[in-house]
Design brief:
homotetramer, 212 residues, mainly alpha, Arc Repressor Mutant, subunit A, Tetracycline Repressor, domain 2, 2 domains, 9 helices, 0% strand, elongated, DNA-binding
DNA sequence: ATCTAAACGAGACGGTACGTCACGTCTTTTG
DNA sequence: CAAAAGACGTGACGTACCGTCTCGTTTAGAT
């Protein structure tokens, strides 16, 4: 837990920030394909070894850039809120609106696309990216849904992970194929259908049972 | 309809096939990140200029590879079927099962990921990839849903495009973050929720109205 | 002597001329380094095979271009004149003046340089270029000098080939290292020294004997 | 005089030597036409960028190769000697014999031809090649001749540059059109004529006056 | 106050791949 | 059958980055 004091000159925290800022700028300007370590180093006024000392690869760097950008700009986003009083429906709605509307912001859209590009390019890196950047969010959504089940808001037999995949994937697919501009409206309508589908079954309106 | 006869030696169709086959093999072996024009040319036994004469970029080539692989291997896939007698619910179910199960096949998964990587990497190429490769499928799904609305199977006020985004995006997100192995089961469950959410409203069980 | 009538469509002599003209233009504009078969074919409005059917290589083509340009433009030049009445001294002077002054013309200079480049680049081609393009001229000069020896104008013990090398080489070296602009004046002065050195020895002013 | 220490890792002098050696070998084996940057880089065990970092073009590289080969192998050559006691005639004779005999050595002949090819191919490069590689030698010859004029060994009215052109050009023309094998003998005989032509005029044997 | 070890900028280095140009040969269709 | 058009395998071009490796300099903590 305690930071080990190694001898020699310690790393300059300002350098980390300069690199992250430069990388973010390059990412926004040139996209993931146009982001080279060389360009980032030059833009940050930093030597390449300094860069590699901190991030072992382009993917690792991009991962951190996305993480910082997301959390710095929209702190609440990323996980269903701690607005404890609300019901699960309300929490989910609030979070998904924020998430979808962030897709309409080109700065956030670029980050999501960068992460997607990194993951799609090489399955190996995808695994660690998922573990560090996407899974916490994903699990928070599932937890929220589960609390909804427990509170009786949602059907007990629904596949919560399938719903989470659909929510996140819906936004992702829009960003990949068109822009994120329509995402907020789409989000409302998707919530409309999904929440209806999640509503507990009554006698008159039985849900369609899953097969396995 | 008539193929225009240009002067000069015509291109060798066998060369096209050799290149596509080589590119597909490289894609499966090394992923999108490992696919270089040089490697493809060498594997196809072809000069680089021959390759560039036909595909102006890596993205264009990968797009075609995916298209061919998909249609050659699983002809029916890609669009909701022409099984005319079935209702929209049945058509959609049939198609989505096939689509999700193809995500479990590593060969198809690689193709979808390659397309995703290409689109995520540079928004410019994304637009043309979408137009040529994904939109037809997307529109077929929306058409299928629309016919369901007309036949009274689905609610008239549902956002059909939001549903299509959710279906495709769900599979995509699974592939990106984990594997496609769970996709078939997930697909059943997602259909379960979505179809329930699309069911026309009765007096006793009103649907939640969209906000705008 | 008799032109053999081969079957099939005869070659178009106008095509030859178009190619030679195009090659000459490219040579003047882009130099020997900038002359590619591709460029010549395009400029002549001719297919590459047509070009290769007539000239087997760049060197062969350039050789012909030079030959035609030289003889078309300055018919008398190239060999010591047939002005039969003149003495050898006069013939040599007349020829060398014409030769040196042609080096001042950029069009001729380019031709000489092209020939030089071709010869210097590959010794193999140099041999055939020499045989076809330079040797006749060279031998005419030596013959002229020999006639001067026979008429008593020049020393009998002089190495006539050494003199011919010096005359031609002098102009060549000027073209290679500077321009040919100064060549005409230089030529006068070189003739002055060489003719003095070739003058038959008198008792009072013995020539320096060669060693072998 | 002091070597400026630029920041960053300094260039490896051994790499320069390896490249020059490799380039020389390729030049001797394949001639100027067969020398590609790619081949040189491979032969030197060096990446192409390393090569281009030091020499911006094939011409520049060949120029340096020639310069090094000449000076490494035959230090005295290249300029009339500092054998101070000798008269100008002796100096000139000594230098020209060495120069002509070097043309008989295939290794030197290849270097001279390479330089010639480079210069003939593109007039633009020719200028800088002349300035760096040939002019110093040329001026040394003219200086030697001038000192001969001052000492009374040579005529005051002779065009010394014309003589220098003839000496160098004579060897060059031999190399281009035949081999350099005959150059040493030819050199003796050319010196014989030229020195005779340069001898100061006496009353009985007036020199032929130049025209302008 | 000195020592020491790491961080730092700069940039050289062996590589791989880029996308283009020209090579010389080969198939086509058209005249 | 020649000619134009152009595809083809090959190979070199000159450039961009890769990730690693020296360099000489700076900078903090330990002595």
């Amino acid at each position: 837990m305690d930071e080990v004091r190694r001898p020699g000159r310690p790393r300059d925290a300002a350098t980390d920030r300069a690199i992250l800022r430069a990388a973010r700028d390059v990412l926004l300007r040139d996209g993931y394909a146009g982001l080279s370590m060389e360009k980032v180093a030059a833009a940050a006024g930093v030597g390449k070894p300094t860069l590699y000392r901190r991030w072992s690869s382009r993917v690792a760097l991009v991962g951190d850039v996305v993480w910082h950008s997301f959390h710095a700009a929209v702190p609440g986003i990323g996980r269903p809120g701690p607005q404890a009083g609300d019901g699960a429906t309300q929490q989910l709605t609030t979070w998904f609106r924020a998430y979808a509307s962030s897709a309409g912001d080109p700065r956030h859209a670029a980050m999501i696309l960068a992460l997607t590009a990194a993951a799609a390019e090489s399955p190996h890196d995808a695994e660690s990216l998922y573990r560090h950047h996407t899974r916490p969010q994903y699990e928070a959504i599932v937890d929220c849904l589960r609390s909804g089940v427990e509170s009786g808001e949602f059907r007990a037999d629904a596949d919560l992970e399938a719903v989470a995949d659909a929510l996140i994937g819906s936004v992702l697919y829009q960003l990949l194929t068109r822009t994120g501009d329509a995402a907020p409206q789409r989000a409302e309508h998707l919530l409309d259908v999904l929440l209806a589908g999640l509503r507990p079954v009554t006698r008159d309106q039985p849900g369609r049972a899953p097969r396995d």
